[in-house]
Amino acid sequence: MSFSIKESKFGNETRVKLLLQDSVPVYWPCLYVIKKMRVRSPNTQQRFLSDLVVFLTWLKLESIELEARLQKRPQSHYLSESELARFTSQVHWKKETIDKLFSGVRLHHAAYQQVGASQAESRMITAKNYLSFLYEALGHPDDRLDQIARMVKRVDLSIKESRPSWKRRPMEPKGLTLEQEDVLLNKLHPGSKDNPWPKSEKIRVRNYLIIMLLFNLGIRRSEMLGIKLADIDFRKNRVQIIHRPNDPDDPRVSEPLVKTNERSLPVREELMAVINKYINMRRGFRRAKTHPYLILAHGKSGGAPLSIKSVDAVFNIAKKAFPVLKGITPHTLRHHDVHQTIKVVSEQTKDLPIEDRMQQEKRILNYKYGWSDTSKMPSLYGQKQYQEQAEKALEARNDKLFSNSSSRDKEDVR
């Protein structure tokens, strides 16, 4: 039994992930995705099916023909409490461990490899949702709703029990040091003698444009790769970030998707100059005339829209040339831009009451980075700035305490 996940396009250009077994679509998982997840992003569908493969493999390992059991009449045969308990106790195994068990290999206790708690929880949630769908579709009308409620309650209890009792450590602050910033803006400049792409001016300009867009606008990789020429307002120096799911203009296998709200962002003159320079170079690619996207692939796929993996490759080459960039990803630049934005907003609103300052900061961050009004992202992304503010406050407090202590010591000496 070999599962694989493939992306397919329907007539209206909707992209859907399908689960295949030995190159044949598996009916019920594919139907679930089409009915329940068609409007979700391909990445979300991919994660769901990857988790579902673990559940389906476990069913095979246990010799459970679930669909046949549910279709039995006069009474459907649902998963029992003990079967659900066995699955939730084994859901922490890595896929490789489950595959070995399925093939009949006997493993030593030390060979049972486990995934993290969050991934195990994701697998249980996926199994719960898929079972609810199957129970409703195939179960007996007299008891299927009661059986769904029983199953959901049992799985939810297992999820709660699997969560660690300790609180998760706060996210480490992310951003750029001054040295890293200098490398990105100066060493990777197209005119720098240290530029790691010396053979092609077009590649140097394109890669620098990638750096500048991420650094100056704080956008995601997918948002950057989704920018079309029509999204650029050359008169007002602005770029629009637009949500276009299942875009028929996009020929890429893995379509970059905008996860955040649409917005219009101002562009600095320096960045606008790089955009204009690259657009002039872009006209030299015949294939670029077949699509409207700004940033292109070079080399064998010259003129096609650039992929997300290619953006990561740009950063990997830069890190190899400049070890100081170790650990830097495209998303690090988004964290850094949030940090810089909070610093500017804090300075501009320092004379306002604390409640007004917080509201102003949240409104600006939510708009610039496309977050919803109820999003917790501002507090997560702002860790670096908040840590710096906390350290300054502690230093000031300690200085005051030390000053008062010194004064009392002097008086005691007198």
Automatic annotation (TrEMBL):
Coiled-coil stretches noted in the UniProt entry, renumbered to this chain: none
Protein name: Site-specific integrase
Swiss-Prot/TrEMBL keywords: DNA integration, DNA recombination, DNA-binding
Region (Disordered): 395-414
Family annotation (Pfam families): Phage_integrase
Family classification: Belongs to the 'phage' integrase family.
InterPro entries per record: DNA_brk_join_enz, Integrase-like_cat_sf, Integrase_catalytic, Tyrosine_recombinase_XerCD
PROSITE patterns per UniProt: TYR_RECOMBINASE
